[in-house]
Write a structure and sequence with these properties.
With 60 residues, the chain is mainly α. The chain has a domain of 36 residues. Helices cover 68% and strands 0% of the residues. It is rod-shaped. The termini are far apart.
Length: 60
């Protein structure tokens, strides 16, 4: 999901696809985003947890 704009064909892509491409429904697109965010958030919370565990080990 790097972005829909084709590097080579910027002008025509902009004209045709100001929105996501028609074959991707908006619901699917939103679902993908939500999944992405959940992954990011879980990774962040995991790193936070391990950091706090390490800190408590060092302090304790």
């Amino acid at each position: 999901m790097s972005g829909w704009v084709d590097e080579v064909d910027t002008n025509t892509t902009r004209r045709h696809h100001s929105k996501p491409p028609p074959h991707i429904s908006i619901k699917t697109f939103e679902a993908c985003l939500i999944v992405r965010w959940r992954q990011v958030l879980t990774v962040k919370s995991l790193t936070m947890n391990t950091e706090s565990k390490v800190k408590s080990r060092i302090v304790g």
